[in-house]
Design the sequence.
């Protein structure tokens, strides 16, 4: 209905008709909400203190309506006002924030959250397994700058213990879930939440906080001029209430609408007096670094779990209080308001507890010498192997503890020891008395780990890029399951293997052949096998063939004579000079390769395939992958 051309009684009647229509609509919405949903948390009040917040923001609290964040760029200084509720960091959108609800039992088909945000995800985390994404657990992206309801379908998760989580994009475990498909720039993200409702149907609650609701509660004006005056009075009143932190919900919606539509001055051109202040804020905000993230866990309110009878999660038994292992005193953690992780860490790191130090120095010994003083590095208990040198293990554990747990200091001691500097050639007595070399009479012959094999091939081929830092590189693969990401380049961008982006369903086949562990679980000790599949991999893997080809191209381009090439390639691959016997065998092998390619005489030195096959044969030698 257009009221502008009306005057007097016609204007008032039009206003009343509009008011009655919206009053009926709002009454219907309130009735629908009251009938179909149960308010779980009203986060505009004291319920906010029951939620947990992690990041650089303050602990969760109900922020009053009317706050704002200055836009980092552009003509607009302020885009909108912030409603009452929990808000992520309002000072800058660069800072990470994770907000979680208290744990609860899922008992309805749907959970709806009244949220706003950008580059943010909201999800239901079931049974404390926080890794699952939208395909595993109910989840939605948030890409709206005005409060609205988002529904999560929880029918399949009824009966489960769960909690709700709002998380900015860079802190989400699955980086593929972004906000509304928008480009993610500068690490900026934000969100706000004001309410959570449980309901059975698929329809989320109806929105009841509308700008017009606040306006239509006033007496009917008699003309457009009277309406304009009413706008002015209500805006002045709303601005005053905002400054006092007493904005009502509908009054906030009314004031926010004028800010969003730029009917109140919100641009630099209309606020020249703020130009210097805004410029200074933007300069300082731009200098704030985007935090670097590392995998970890968030602290939250502590809770005790029930015992699962015979390991079955659908048969919970009595609740077991959080505590340390009984054999080590069973210190009770359930009295702490926190999870108990800190208390557990304090007990483990206590100087009176030698167990952690023993495990740590045994692992360091394992990595330096190829086998731990306790061979079962993952089990130093009754079912593990006994230590070969118990007094040495205790000495190293005490020393490690007394020196502040310094890994670097312990490694320096190990690699400068007489045991580490021994030859790998055993004596006759050692072969007879200690064939397994548990007494360390000589050094162990060890095969390079999978990453070392790949890096050695890259290095010898002259392709290794030693640059440090930067993002990982997707692995090259032929087949995979869904979700492994796109295949990477065959040479892995020539980066060291530590920069390979290994996923559970996208592995590097070369690394797998040489016993790289599956990324589905942790292992204290890798397998070190010697099987035919490894030799076949060095013969047929496309990465090995490609590196041999690149090395051969470099050798051919050098123009050196045959004997010089053989000697230099052997020294580069094995780290030692070639012997006369080996040189003679290499010349004979190259002659056979030349015959296969149909070349002879000077043509041998200019045929890349001859030198490619010779280069690959060096990669296939046992000496290349074993440290003697």
Sequence:
């Amino acid at each position: 209905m257009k009221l502008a051309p009306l005057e007097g009684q016609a204007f008032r009647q039009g206003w009343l008709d509009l008011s009655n229509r919206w009053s009926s609509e709002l009454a219907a919405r309130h009735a629908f909400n009251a009938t179909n949903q149960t308010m779980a948390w009203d986060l505009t009040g004291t319920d906010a203190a029951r939620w947990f917040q992690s990041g650089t923001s303050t602990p969760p609290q109900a922020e009053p309506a009317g706050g704002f964040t200055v836009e980092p760029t552009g003509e607009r200084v302020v885009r909108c006002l912030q409603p009452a509720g929990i808000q992520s960091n309002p000072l800058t959108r660069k800072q990470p924030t994770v907000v979680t609800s208290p744990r609860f039992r899922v008992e309805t088909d749907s959970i709806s959250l009244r949220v706003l945000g950008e580059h943010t995800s909201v999800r239901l985390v079931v049974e404390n397994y926080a890794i699952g994404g939208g395909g595993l657990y109910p989840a939605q992206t948030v890409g709206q700058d005005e409060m609205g309801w988002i529904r999560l379908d929880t029918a399949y998760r009824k009966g489960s213990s769960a909690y709700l989580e709002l998380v900015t994009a860079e802190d989400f475990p699955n980086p593929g879930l972004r906000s509304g498909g928008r480009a993610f720039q500068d690490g900026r993200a934000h969100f706000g939440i004001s309410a959570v409702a449980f309901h059975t149907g698929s329809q989320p609650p109806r929105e009841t906080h509308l700008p017009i609701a606040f306006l239509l509660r006033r007496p009917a004006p008699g003309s457009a001029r009277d309406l304009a005056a009413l706008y002015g009075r209500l805006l002045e009143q709303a601005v005053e209430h905002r400054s006092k932190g007493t904005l009502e919900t509908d009054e906030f919606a009314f004031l926010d609408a004028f800010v969003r539509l730029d009917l109140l001055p919100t641009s630099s051109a209309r606020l020249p007096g703020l130009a210097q202040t805004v410029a200074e804020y933007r300069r300082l905000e731009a200098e704030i670094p985007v935090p670097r993230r590392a995998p970890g866990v968030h602290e939250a309110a502590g809770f005790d779990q029930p015992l699962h009878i015979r390991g079955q999660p659908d048969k919970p038994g009595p609740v077991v209080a959080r505590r340390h292992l009984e054999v080590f005193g069973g210190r009770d953690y359930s009295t702490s308001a926190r999870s108990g992780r800190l208390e557990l860490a304090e007990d483990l790191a206590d100087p009176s507890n030698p167990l952690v130090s023993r495990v740590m120095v045994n692992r360091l010994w394992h990595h330096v010498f190829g086998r731990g003083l306790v061979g079962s590095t993952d089990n130093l208990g009754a079912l593990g192997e006994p230590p070969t040198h118990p007094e040495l293990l205790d000495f190293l554990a005490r020393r490690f503890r007394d020196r502040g747990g310094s890994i670097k200091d312990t490694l320096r001691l190990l690699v400068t020891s007489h045991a580490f500097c021994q030859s790998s050639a055993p004596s006759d007595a050692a072969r007879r008395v200690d064939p397994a070399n548990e007494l360390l009479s000589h050094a162990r012959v060890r095969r390079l780990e999978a990453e070392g094999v790949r890096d050695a091939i890259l290095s010898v081929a002259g392709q290794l890029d030693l640059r440090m830092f930067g993002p990982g590189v997707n692995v090259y693969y032929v087949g995979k399951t869904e979700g492994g990401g796109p295949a990477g380049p065959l040479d892995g961008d020539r980066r060291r293997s530590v920069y390979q982006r290994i996923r559970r369903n996208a592995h590097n086949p070369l690394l797998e052949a040489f016993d790289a562990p599956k990324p589905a679980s942790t292992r204290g000790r890798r397998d070190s096998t010697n099987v035919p599949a490894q030799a076949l991999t060095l013969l047929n893997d496309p990465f090995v063939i490609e590196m041999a080809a690149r090395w051969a191209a470099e050798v051919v381009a050098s123009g050196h004579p045959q004997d010089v090439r053989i000697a230099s390639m052997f020294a580069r691959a094995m780290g030692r000079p070639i012997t006369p016997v080996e040189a003679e065998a290499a010349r004979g092998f190259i002659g056979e390769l030349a015959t296969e390619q149909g070349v002879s005489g000077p043509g041998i030195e200019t045929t890349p395939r001859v030198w490619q096959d010779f280069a690959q044969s060096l990669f296939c030698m046992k000496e290349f992958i074993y440290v003697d």
About this structure: The two ends are 91 Å apart (CA to CA). The longest strand covers residues 110-126.
